[in-house]
Amino acid sequence: MSASADTNAGKPAIEVWHLRKTYGQTVAVDDLSLSVTAGEIFGILGPNGAGKTTTVECMIGLRTPDSGSVQVTGLDPVRDREEVRLVAGVQLQASVLQARLRVGEILDLYRSFYSKPADVEELVAALGLAEKRKDYYKSLSGGQKQRLSIALALIGRPKIAVLDEMTTGLDPQARRDTWELIEGVRDRGVTIVLVTHYMDEAERLCDRVALIDRGRVVAINTPGGLADQFGGGKRVRFVPSTSFDDGLLTSLPEVRSVEHQGQHVVVTGSGELINAVILALDRAGVIARDARTESATLEDAFVMLTGRHLHNDGAVQRK
Amino acid sequence: MSGHWSLLPASTPRSAFGKIALNETRLAWRQPIGLVFGVGMPLLLLVIFGSLPAFHKHQNALGGLTYFNVYIPVLLALVIAMLALLSLPTPLASYREQGILRRLSTTPAPPAWVLAAQLVINLCLAAMAMLILVALGIAGFGEDAAKSPGGLVLAIAASVAALFSIGLWIAAIARTAAAAGGLGSVMLFPMLFFAGLWVPRADMPKVLLDISNYTPLGAAVQAAQAALQSGFPPTAPLLILLAYAGLFATLAVRFFRWE
After folding, report:
1. Residues spanned by the domain of B244
2. B-chain residue closest to A81, CA distance
3. Whole-prediction pTM value?
């Protein structure tokens, strides 16, 4: 939202080095390092209990790291907590507000905390809360509460917005609307850190994703890059018109493996896999019938990297 | 949570405190624990007691005072106790329980401003209720003005300091709103007993009176009654009240958590 943020694009907005945080015997975050570039939507993805929330809580100064360090636009969230509170807008997981305050009263309150707040009219319109300003907080639906929480994270015109489980509890339409809003906020120069355990959200929204498991970063890349790198790449499945020598395909640089499943052949690889396969078959006089491509997903990458599935609890529908 | 932050951050507009206080006032109106129990109930009791002819008879057992005379300081103590032990700690504990203070601590507004707003609101309610109580006693039911107005103000100030410190201590140690309400009530009823709400202090056996002198509300009533009926209050109850204030304020500061 602030125009000056644009000039910072490309520089790190947040840097985390060797972060460690324990609660008693439990190690929540263990030697975690990552860097968020200014102007990007950075996803922190992982199963419940992976240490995602603890990591962002250290970023915004809600928790003090046991060791390691965190810098937010060059500031220490513990030492420079006042400045960090101006720079970073926060949406906390499962946070609640006073039941008997009206939406408009809450927005007016949070607006008063900043000397240059956002335009409330614009914000409530973008979040579909314009009709709700006179309603008590307690009368809002889960999704409306969540959207109000996002509005409060953005009301101070932050350079960085930290959104923890932003779309949990939203219906599919509200999730897509929220994604569009977040993209619009990013386009105005705000860096966004998005904590999520929804694969489709990360794939759709994030410029880069850190996969986190058991308190450590397992991999950082673009969603597509992670899928290609660790998810087994692309697959082409077809029924050949006649039998052929596997060497025909395994000799191609794009192809990693060829597998026969009944009358189907499944070829895995990367790059322009389908073109390479069909061209090579055509040259040998083989027609690939019912050819279909399947792309690896972030979820494939996650399973490959951690040996476990993410718990997709909730109304996630894959497209 | 690391506790190193300024109570007056330079970049946070000071008008934010006004907004916090405004919203807390709205909540005090919409969920009127303090208004009902701290203002309404003592005033209702004043009107009831003032309307009973028996309460206006001079009693030898009370050293020539009437029951109505004796109940004025008890009702003042009731105002302070209800606001300090129920109205003040319950919202604070509930805000901590629900994460409202934690949410606030991610903004430029210090969560301590909510505590300050709650203190201001409950102090205003207390001042309002006690002013009405004293004024109505004089104008409506023929009470004499306080023998020592300055002494009365001092007695009330010391009582408010003691009871509000205890209320903040409850807010500090209660993990939930329900626990704060429970602890407040558990402390309230013995205190009100020793204040003389059910048996006036003058009618108490010596043992109970001796105990009463050392309880916060017993000392409060002793000091206020002296200021109303005889003159400047004795030192003992004032010192006892200040000791409670110091002890519980220290404990409250020591144990208060924002999350």
Report:
1. 15-255
2. B5
3. 0.84
- Going by their DSSP bridges, the two strands A216-221 and A208-213 should be labelled as antiparallel
Instruction: Specify whether A188 is located in the same domain as A244.
Output: no
Q: What is the mean pLDDT of chain B?
A: 94
For CA atoms A151, A71, B100, B117, give the dihedral sign: negative
Beta strand A88-91 with A191-196 is unpaired
For chain A, the domain total comes to 2
Residue to mutate among B101, B107, B258, with most A CBs inside 10 A, is B107
User: Mutate which of B12, B103, B106, B118 to disrupt the A interface (most A C-beta within 10 Å)?
Assistant: B106
Tens of pLDDT, residues A11-63 = 799 999 999 999 999 999 999 999 999 999 999 998 888 899 999 999 999 99
Report how many Cβ contacts below 8 Å link chain A to chain B: 83
In A, which residues are within 8 Å of B258 by CB distance?
none
Same domain, A68 and A130: yes
Say which of A79, A96, A113 has its CB closest to residue B100: A96
The beta-carbon neighbor of A82 closest among B9, B13, B15 is B9
Phi, psi of A210 (to 5 degrees): -105, 120
Per-residue confidence (pLDDT) for residue A3, from 0 to 100: 44
Residue A317 covered by a domain: no
DSSP assignment of A123-166 equals HHHHTT-GGGTTSBGGGS-HHHHHHHHHHHHHTT--SEEEEEST
User: CB contact, 8 Å: B25 with chain A?
Assistant: no
Summarised one tens digit per residue, pLDDT across range B39-83 is: 999 999 999 999 999 999 999 988 899 999 999 999 999 999 999
> How does residue B153 score in pLDDT terms, banded at 50, 70 and 90?
very high
A262 located within any domain: yes
- Residue A88 pLDDT: 95
Which residue type, as a one-letter code, is found at position B255? Answer: F
| Least confident among A114-118, A196-200, A223-227, A294-298 | A294-298
Could you say which DSSP state residue A75 is in?
A: B
Residues in chain B, total: 259
ipTM for the complex shown: 0.89
Residue B92: closest C-alpha in chain A: A98
